[in-house]
Structure prediction request, 277 residues.
Amino acid sequence: MKILVPVDLYDSSHSAYEYAVHFANLIDAELTLLHVINSVFTGFEVIAYDPYIEMEKAAKKRLSDYVSKYKSKDGKKLPQVNTKIEVMFGIPGFAINEYANSNDMDLIIMGVRDKHGLFDRMLGSASNETINDAKCPIILIHTSTVFKKPEKILFAFDRKTDLDDSLEDFKEFNNIIKAKTDFLHINVKKTDDISEQKAEIVSELFEKDDPQFAFEVKTLSGNNVITGLNDYCFFEKVDLVTMIHREGGLFSNFFRTDKSIKIAQKLHLPVIVFQED
Prediction:
């Protein structure tokens, strides 16, 4: 498995990198650390200015130093994993997806921060942009997230979720992890009938071959999805939250933070995001 870790050297990147190293060691994967130099320029500028080459070299050296020094930071001893370093120019969210798609990455692990400015909310933070266009799953890591081997996974879904492709991807992912999984629907309207989704979950998981993990399908009543998930994760000692990304309209993407990011920010748990189709 190949894991991409975008690094911008904020605290959230530190947490994502540390989590990614432990996770890669757990599943015997290789890491690629990607730093995107936020820049948009013309072809003429590339030809005319050698400093871009120097900037790339400097960024690669900085990343290399970061990796070697972080292993002994605060007395931490990180596992040894195969790690590659890459630098790109561009707009972070778009560049991350471009690299992931071009290099057949299986997973992206990236950090999220608590606060986003108006510019981020309107044009999309890197994490929002990556989620919107990614073709592989993404694990979001909050600054306060500490690695723990996932033994209990919460898979959140609602009545409108198209589960076909996401369940297939999740099964492939969790057949490696083998964590007990609770498929959970928070019934806010109190009238939702999810019998069709329950049947679909069972059918998809047992298609072709049996899942290599135990699971239950549950529904709970609540007044708010995020609060309901937060309470469930706390009381049930969940280690990893699974969300399905469903694209919204143009204006909803401008003025909202994706629910998966809100969950990562509120719970301080890793959140893995699968695409709906």
About this structure: The CA atoms of residues 114 and 265 lie 6 Å apart. Confidence is low (pLDDT under 50) at residues 116-124, 249-257. The chain has two domains: 2-142, 152-275.
